[in-house]
UniProtKB/TrEMBL annotation:
Biological process annotations from GO: D-xylose metabolic process; UDP-D-xylose biosynthetic process
Protein topology in the membrane: Single-pass type II membrane protein
Protein name from the UniProt record: UDP-glucuronic acid decarboxylase 1
CC cofactor: NAD(+)
Principal place of residence: Golgi
Segments forming domain NAD(P)-binding: 40-279
Any Pfam family hit: GDP_Man_Dehyd
Superkingdom of the source species: Eukaryota
Catalyses which reaction(s): UDP-alpha-D-glucuronate + H(+) = UDP-alpha-D-xylose + CO2
Length: 291
């Protein structure tokens, strides 16, 4: 192969994804002089991520959705496929990603016990290595990055509601710790990159969020609502539109956080099940899932 042919072959490789498990370089020729803000959403095929993409697209941004589809589904973002301002890349963020963006919403991580307890090592790697990769990207391209952290960093709290200054009551070796401690480590990385590398960050601690695109076994299909545990555990519940509005507002502010985004009022899981029962006008047994 001549030297000229080698140059042509190399130039082809700069704009294409090598594989699902390798680093990716995605170059947009017009990205350097672009006038429209380009936004990266990791975990964009998930529940919160897909609703966030809906709002960002409505606001007129160029949106790049990155997801490995471990817990998310393309059906959540299918309506944007083929649109000129939208791009989807299947990629695992534990591998580096090279793109040109202005903002990064870092949501990628299994957020349900069903997923993160089935693969705790993958959950920790996504929280830690994935966050390091996204912070490295933010540093390289001078992008503001928002981490979707969680109220789980407070562990089993002694105070209700929790203020951002509360350090939590945590168990670092429990079966849920892969997620809780993974997010705590992700927050540590965010603030260290901010302090030592000048990365423009924001940290949102997301409380329980509900709305369309959640699991279908939530009472709408006429089946029993599954209660995990005895139902006495309390949670605060925030509607998805309010959650997305909070995330965008934080990104557009000059705040680093951490900022709690959720409902200050708490309800037990049993109270939630009863409310669903009344809404769908159907009775179902109050049972925990089988072991």
């Amino acid at each position: 192969m001549s030297s000229e042919e080698k140059k042509k072959e190399t130039s082809k490789d700069t704009d294409f994804s090598l594989s699902n498990n390798s680093s990716k370089l995605i170059y947009n020729e017009g990205s350097i002089t672009r006038k429209v803000k380009r936004v990266l959403v990791t975990g964009g095929c998930g529940f919160i991520g897909s609703h966030l993409i809906d709002k960002l697209m409505e606001k007129g941004y160029d949106v790049l959705c990155v997801d490995n589809l471990f817990s998310g589904t393309k059906e959540n973002i299918m309506k944007w496929f083929g649109k000129p301002r939208f791009e989807f890349v299947r990629h695992d963020i534990t591998q580096p990603l090279f793109v040109e963006v202005d903002e990064i919403y870092h949501l990628a991580c299994p957020a349900s016990p069903v997923f993160y307890q089935n693969n705790p090592i993958k959950t920790i790697k996504t929280c830690v290595i994935g966050t390091m990769n996204m912070l490295g990207l933010a540093k390289r391209v001078n992008a503001r990055i928002l981490l979707a952290s969680t109220s789980e960093v407070y562990g089993d709290p002694d105070i209700h509601p929790q203020k951002e200054t509360y350090w939590g009551h945590v168990n670092p070796i429990g079966i849920r710790s892969c997620y809780d401690e993974g997010k705590r480590m992700a927050e540590t990385l965010m603030f260290d990159y901010h302090r030592f590398n000048g990365v423009n960050i924001a940290v949102a601690r997301i409380f329980n969020t509900y709305g369309p695109r959640m699991l279908e076994n939530d009472g709408r299909v006429g089946e029993a609502v599954t209660i995990y545990g005895d139902g006495s555990q309390s949670r605060s519940f925030c509607y998805i539109d309010d959650q997305v509005r909070g995330l965008i507002s934080l990104m557009e502010s000059d705040q680093t956080g951490p900022i709690n985004i959720g409902n200050p009022e708490e309800y037990t899981i049993k109270q939630l099940a009863v409310a669903i029962q009344k809404l769908v006008k159907q009775k179902f047994p109050n049972a925990s899932p089988p072991d």
